[in-house]
């Protein structure tokens, strides 16, 4: 089967009726890029930069970050690379930051909240990103955005950093797209307003499922309640994509759902533009997409949104796909 999939390495990710999507990969370090290219990845949909900061006793320097971002951008040549700014807190700790012990770390001091509270940390990363941007097709993404104010504040800091580089005559790309992760229900609901502030959305379903259904993604006792096919989740995904398209922008997904063969057809039907997954899932997802018609999946996805339970959604989708393939 792997041999069969290998043939799709340089084929486009396009449906039978010509809808082209981008299949990218999630990575944690520059070393992961090889696996992305070996598996026919068309981009990086999520570079989790936390790993640069973890398992050490001090902050990575601007230079160290610059080298890592540059390496990824260069290796990916002109393919899009979405680098997510620091998403620490929640389950990911940084001992040297002296983060307070919290009762609810996933609802606490984390990610963009830390970066806006400690702009000196954020600015180092943004400087490294801007400097590296001349080596490829960089897109910057803020995690855990919950309001328009946060996007504006983050963009203001980014603008400040641009100004500082201008003053020093340091080059950076003028075409960097800036987007946000949509992983909090409030963010989904105000998507029509948020899209005016950014260039793209990327749906973080790992957290979106956790926050929407109040199911801790780390708690095994309730893992049976962690359900991507929950009707609320599917409806939220549709809202995010519709808000992005309504604003003339694009929507991607970088949560685990994006690479699930059972869900890829529905995501295609809902109009998702970019799928980012573990590198090993890319060729399989490409095969699925190339075997389906977007217009057919669109109708099926619309109907799927009207079933009251996850089990019924799953049964319906499986049966419909069986019929057409
Ligand atoms: C997500 O929440 O879906 C996501 C991609 O980010 P992380 O898993 O790093 O929280
Ligand atoms: Mg997340």
From TrEMBL:
The keyword Protein biosynthesis does not apply. Residues 3-292 form the PEP-utilising enzyme C-terminal domain. The keyword Lyase does not apply. Keywords: Coiled coil, Cytoplasm, Kinase, Magnesium, Metal-binding, Phosphotransferase system, Pyruvate, Sugar transport, Transferase, Transport. Transmembrane segments: none annotated. It is an enzyme of class 2 (transferase). Its EC number is 2.7.3.9. It is found in: Cytoplasm. One of its GO terms (molecular function) is metal ion binding. Mg(2+) binds at residues 183, 207. Its main location: cytoplasm. Belongs to the PEP-utilizing enzyme family. This is Phosphoenolpyruvate-protein phosphotransferase. It comes from Alkaliphilus metalliredigens (strain QYMF). The chain holds residues 247 to 571 of 571 of the full protein.
């Amino acid at each position: 089967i792997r041999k069969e999939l290998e043939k799709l390495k340089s084929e486009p990710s396009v449906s039978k009726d010509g809808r082209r999507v981008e299949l990218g990969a999630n990575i944690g370090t520059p070393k992961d890029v090889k696996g992305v290219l070996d598996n026919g990845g068309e981009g990086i949909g999520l570079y989790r930069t936390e790993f640069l900061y973890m398992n050490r006793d001090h902050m990575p320097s601007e230079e160290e970050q610059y080298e890592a971002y540059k390496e990824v951008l260069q290796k990916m040549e002109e393919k899009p690379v979405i680098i997510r700014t620091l998403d620490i807190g929640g389950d990911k700790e940084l001992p040297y930051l002296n983060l307070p012990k919290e009762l609810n770390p996933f609802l606490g001091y984390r990610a963009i909240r830390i970066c806006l509270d400690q702009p000196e940390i954020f600015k180092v990363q943004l400087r490294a990103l801007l400097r590296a941007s001349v080596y490829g097709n960089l897109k910057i993404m803020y995690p855990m955005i919950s309001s328009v104010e946060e996007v504006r504040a983050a963009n203001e800091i980014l603008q400040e950093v641009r100004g500082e580089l201008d003053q020093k005559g340091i080059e950076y790309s003028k075409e960097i797209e800036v987007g946000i992760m949509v992983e909090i229900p409030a963010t989904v609901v105000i998507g029509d307003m948020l899209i005016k502030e950014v260039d793209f959305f990327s749906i973080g379903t790992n957290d979106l499922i956790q926050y929407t259904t109040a199911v801790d993604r780390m708690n095994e006792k309730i893992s049976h309640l962690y359900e991507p096919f929950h009707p609320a989740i599917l409806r939220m995904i549709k809202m995010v994509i519709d808000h992005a398209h309504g604003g003339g922008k694009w929507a991607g997904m970088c949560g685990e759902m994006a690479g699930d063969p059972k869900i890829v057809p529905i995501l295609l039907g809902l109009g998702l533009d970019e799928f980012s997954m573990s590198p090993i899932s890319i060729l399989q997802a490409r095969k699925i997409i190339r075997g389906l018609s977007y217009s057919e999946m669109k109708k099926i996805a619309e109907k799927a949104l009207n079933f009251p339970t996850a089990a019924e959604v799953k049964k319906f989708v499986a049966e419909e796909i069986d019929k057409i393939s």
